[in-house]
């Protein structure tokens, strides 16, 4: 019997999984404004900020604060590390699901 894959605890929390999945749906290098991400995920600003901070601490997201005209704007994007972590996470989930479908000791 092979060992079950580990799930990345940074991504595994439901809110962070939703954030990461939303960002992974963007093309590599693309970014989304904080208010748009907040709207897509239907999260409060404080809750989204808290989860983004954890993802940023893991180098999974990059936060860019800038100005458009005189208005401050915050952009969020998935880093290359974050995209790889999400791909690894989804592969681990698939492996767990495949293992639960295939009875132990039998070959598919």
Q: Can you put this structure into words, describing what you see?
A:
This protein is α+β, with helices and mostly antiparallel strands and 108 residues long. The chain has a single domain (9-94), classed as Arc Repressor Mutant, subunit A (Orthogonal Bundle), CATH 1.10.10.10. It contains 5 helices and 3 strands; from the N terminus they run H-H-E-H-H-E-E-H. It has helices spanning 9-12, 14-24, 34-41, 45-57, 80-101; strands at 32-33, 61-68, 71-78. Strands 1-3-2 form a 3-stranded antiparallel sheet. Helix 2 crosses helix 4 (45-57). The radius of gyration is 17 Å and the shape is elongated.
Q: Which descriptor suits the 3D outline? A: elongated
Largest sheet: 3 strands, antiparallel
Q: What is the CATH class?
A: Mainly Alpha
Rounded radius of gyration (Å): 17 Å
Distance between the termini: 14 Å
Number of helices: 5
For the largest sheet, list the strands in their spatial order.
Answer: 1-3-2
What is the annotated CATH architecture?
Answer: Orthogonal Bundle
In brief:
The chain is built from 5 helices and 3 strands; from the N terminus they run H-H-E-H-H-E-E-H. With 108 residues, the chain is an alpha+beta fold.
Question: Could you name the key traits of this structure?
Answer:
three-stranded antiparallel sheet; elongated; alpha+beta; single chain; Arc Repressor Mutant, subunit A; 108 residues
Q: Could you outline the blueprint of secondary structure elements for this entry?
A:
Layout: H1 9-12, H2 14-24, E1 32-33, H3 34-41, H4 45-57, E2 61-68, E3 71-78, H5 80-101
Antiparallel strand pairs: 1-3, 2-3
Helix pairs in contact: 2-4
């Amino acid at each position: 019997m092979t060992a079950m894959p580990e799930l990345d605890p940074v991504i595994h929390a439901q809110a962070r999984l939703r954030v990461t999945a939303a960002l992974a749906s963007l093309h590599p290098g693309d970014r989304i404004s904080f208010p748009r991400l907040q709207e897509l995920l239907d999260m409060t600003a404080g809750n989204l900020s808290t989860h983004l901070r954890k993802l940023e601490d893991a180098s999974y997201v990059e936060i860019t604060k800038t100005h458009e005209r005189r208005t401050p704007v915050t952009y969020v994007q998935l880093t290359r590390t974050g995209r790889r972590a999400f791909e690894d996470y989804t592969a681990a989930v698939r492996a767990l699901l495949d293992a639960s479908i295939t009875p132990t000791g039998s070959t598919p």
